[in-house]
Design goal:
By secondary structure, the protein is an all-alpha fold. 76% of the residues lie in helices and 0% in strands. The protein is built from 12 helices and no strands. The protein starts with 6 loop residues before the first helix and ends with a helix.
């Protein structure tokens, strides 16, 4: 452990991220009762633009918002927009714990994508971690069970692909341009607001939020922004090998929320599969940490 590592502070920031991601799921379910996913993304992004712009001006960092590498920002945000819409869609169709467990697969997909598209090398242990992660996904989804692959499960697995693509473009973005968190979050909110407007207005029947919707729209926007900022801050204080296990606490927390507020049962297969997926992710993190030494 180096002098620059602050595990207790990182843990505190990660608990903020765990709470933020869980609150985002609850707000998303509430909004889905009256708005479709495109409308949710539009109004959420509107609040995001206002919030990020306000933070940039109040903290004297408005010069961080630059119109550079917009093609990479667009590719990143299009991928994230697709993943987020699929996540919101699956949110109403499958148990919360199952959705979160499948979402944990996206770091494995990022690692595979880095090998395929960014030229990173794969060794035997890394290939083994990919296989272990895939087994975990099968245990969570159980595609060969009595229910088969439902549209909710397919959406949840597809959303992991969208988030993985977003992470890969973020990695490429930070390698080719001098960007900051403010810049990334600003273009994320602005571009996704435009994408949401186009998609929500495509059928000519876009619904305006009611007075009951707006509090949840603010919650889903601020909880998402806050969770990502907490996660970024945690990773700046401690390595991923310390931070990532804390993120896994999202699963039991959301399972309890699903049981208490939505009558969802606790599924042992979801926890077993999620633990296997986590193990595969952690194996990748440890290998990457050793390679940097």
């Amino acid at each position: 452990m180096t002098a620059q590592t602050h595990p207790l502070k990182a843990a505190a920031w990660m608990m903020g991220a765990v709470f933020g991601f869980s609150l985002l799921a609850v707000a998303g379910r509430q909004l889905a009762l009256g708005l479709d996913t495109f409308e949710i993304m539009t109004y959420r992004s509107l609040v995001g633009v206002i919030t990020v712009t306000g933070i940039a001006f109040l903290t004297g960092r408005r010069d961080h918002i630059k119109a550079s590498a917009l093609h990479l920002h667009f590719a990143r945000n299009l991928s994230h927009f697709a993943g987020q819409n699929l996540w919101l869609f699956a949110l109403t169709l499958i148990p919360l714990a199952q959705l979160f467990a499948l979402e944990f697969a996206y770091p494995i997909l990022v690692a595979i994508g880095a090998v395929l598209f960014l030229g990173e090398r794969v060794n035997g242990l890394r290939a083994l971690s990919f296989g272990i992660g895939f087994i975990g996904i099968l245990i969570v989804a159980r595609p060969f069970g009595s229910g088969g692959l439902s549209i909710g499960l397919l959406s949840a697995m597809a959303c992991a692909l969208g988030f993985a693509g977003s992470a890969l473009f973020t990695k490429k973005l930070t390698q080719t341009a001098n960007v900051t968190l403010i810049s990334i979050m600003f273009w994320l909110s602005l571009m996704q607001m435009g994408m949401g407007l186009i998609c929500a207005g495509f059928d000519g029947d876009m619904v305006l939020p009611s007075a009951q919707h707006w509090p949840w729209i603010v919650v889903i926007s601020l909880s998402g922004l806050g969770a990502h900022m907490c996660l970024t801050q945690a990773l700046s204080l401690a390595p991923a090998s310390i931070v990532t296990p804390i993120d896994f606490l999202r699963l039991p927390l959301i399972a309890v929320i699903g049981m208490m507020f939505y009558g969802e049962g606790l599924d042992v297969y979801v926890f077993v599969g999620a633990a296997i997926i986590f193990g595969a992710n952690y194996m990748n993190i440890l290998m990457e940490s050793r390679n940097r030494v």
